[in-house]
């Protein structure tokens, strides 16, 4: 750093570098420590804040938490007859999440196997970039395409009015497919080659190797891929809101309209005043979303812990 | 070195937890949540003379933004930020003092958690709305009773109200929305609408009504600018500035701009400007609203109609 007019001796230079090195060390370490602390603090802050806001419906407004979770009657603006039962939205959220995972899982894992085992070169050069591009498309675009293309299509060819649980499931499937595929592909690629070679040496065909050796070996990671996809589907609000219809009834079939926790929150939060019971019950929905997301994370941790390779 | 790292880490944690606790304590009182929720611009409370923040009703945002643009064109040093966010957010934030003007579709009296006595109402325009009907239903005039029957689900086919043989699909607004509030109160006489597709954005509602056979929703008059949807008459009365102004057409609401206490400085000047002839005769009708000057009737927060 210090540039003397006369160049310093070799020993002096060494001392200078040493000092610099030590300073570098401290600086680098504190920099990354600060980053970590900020991350942790943000997580804790969001959790504490949401818990505190979300519990107000029960502590301040005296809503029965059991009734809140299990009642199917949602009528927040009913005055004296107001009722706050969010079961239809919990049901709606879980329904779109599991159904979209059900479609996205085989598609995503199939694509992952194709990319890692069948056509690795084509997969890496063409398919992977294409799939990763899908991740970058904003959810409002998915929602808009759903609204102008998918909903009229469903209206013409299926029962119902187009806005439906099914429309939400399809939009979410497309949205989480890249997540599932990318993670599943990484999981398949990270399997040691000795597994493949060993299986082939024993006389197994390529398909037998994939089915009996590679998939079982990668199973925990593949499940992680699915759960992460589900977590994304569960938290998605905008795209779903545009196609699902946002009703407060439990759907009778997948072609009925439905509502999810996220869509009800985004639709209503701006219209409510802070501290009102309507506002508080929406915060409580946010808290429930967070708790269920944590559950997803725990499942992921558990599955990762079971990974053998 | 290792020990030092640990102590630094602990110190940071203590700091973070301290800040957290402070925030948490703050949010416990129901007055200052805006500070922690992060959706308001931190220190906007003490607005300087030349800079104000307006937020609230997204339905009003285009009107107020257009007026603010024009005002800024005439007063170069004035800085008026117009944000949306919803009527509830606008009222809450103006009550907290985090914004200078809070826009709302509804009277503050109608919103829980707002002390209507503490904030001052400035009615800047009137918005009319009516039922929007899919053209294939072949209906363009409904009695109020028919409207109520349709929206409460008693009538489920358009042929029952003189239209085509086609199922009725309802398009609603979110529970707390000001548009829904107005429509329920003045078109449905307070009856709760049956379940239907629920969307917040007027443009989305318009598109759904236009595309879905037999759909009916409700929209502000400015959205009836083409023939993709039918603008329904109510009891034979067409919704126009004249019929609303005379009190013949019932479904309308004031567009409120609330201030925390009597407005001062730029906030006052801007609200005066909103009510000036310059804005009321140009921007207000251009944006599809009824000017305050056209209103021969007035309505209070309880919905009582009186001649001016």
TrEMBL record, chain A:
Top-rank lineage group of the source organism: Bacteria
Q: Which UniProt keywords apply?
A: Cell membrane, Membrane, Phosphate transport, Transmembrane, Transmembrane helix, Transport
Q: Sorted alphabetically, which Gene3D superfamilies does this protein's record hold?
A: MetI-like
- Membrane association type: Multi-pass membrane protein
PROSITE patterns this protein is in?
ABC_TM1 (PS50928)
GO MF entries? phosphate transmembrane transporter activity
Which GO BP terms, alphabetically?
phosphate ion transport
Q: Which Pfam families match?
A: BPD_transp_1
Annotated TM spans: 31-51, 86-114, 126-154, 160-184, 213-234, 282-303
Where is this protein found? Cell membrane
Q: Which GO terms describe its cellular component?
A: plasma membrane
- Record flagged with keyword Cell membrane: yes
Q: Where is the ABC transmembrane type-1 domain positioned along the sequence?
A: 90-300
Residues of the signal sequence? none
Q: What does this protein do?
A: Part of the binding-protein-dependent transport system for phosphate; probably responsible for the translocation of the substrate across the membrane.
Report the family membership: Belongs to the binding-protein-dependent transport system permease family. CysTW subfamily.
Report the protein name in the record: Phosphate transport system permease protein
Gene from which this protein is expressed:
pstC
From TrEMBL, chain B:
**Bilayer topology term:** Lipid-anchor
Which PANTHER family is this protein grouped with?
PERIPLASMIC PHOSPHATE BINDING COMPONENT OF PHOSPHATE ABC TRANSPORTER, PHOSPHATE-BINDING PROTEIN PSTS 1
Q: Does the keyword Lipoprotein apply?
A: yes
Which GO cellular component term is one of those annotated? plasma membrane
CDD domains recorded for this chain?
Answer: PBP2_phosphate_like_1
Q: Does the keyword Isomerase apply?
A: no
Q: What family is this?
A: Belongs to the PstS family.
User: Which residues, if any, are the signal sequence?
Assistant: 1-21
Tell me which Pfam families the record gives.
Answer: PBP_like_2
Give the multimer and partner information.
Answer: The complex is composed of two ATP-binding proteins (PstB), two transmembrane proteins (PstC and PstA) and a solute-binding protein (PstS).
Q: Where in the cell is it found?
A: Cell membrane
Question: Which BP terms does GO give this entry?
Answer: phosphate ion transport
Q: Which InterPro entries match?
A: PBP_domain, Phos-bd, Phosphate_ABC_transporter
| UniProt-listed Gene3D superfamilies | Periplasmic binding protein-like II
Role description: Involved in the system for phosphate transport across the cytoplasmic membrane. Part of the ABC transporter complex PstSACB involved in phosphate import.
Q: Which stretches of sequence are listed as region Disordered?
A: 28-49
Q: Name one GO molecular function term.
A: phosphate ion binding
Q: Which domain of life is it from?
A: Bacteria
Q: What is this protein called?
A: Phosphate-binding protein
Q: Which residues form the PBP domain?
A: 48-278
Keywords from UniProt, A to Z, are: Cell membrane, Lipoprotein, Membrane, Palmitate, Phosphate transport, Signal, Transport
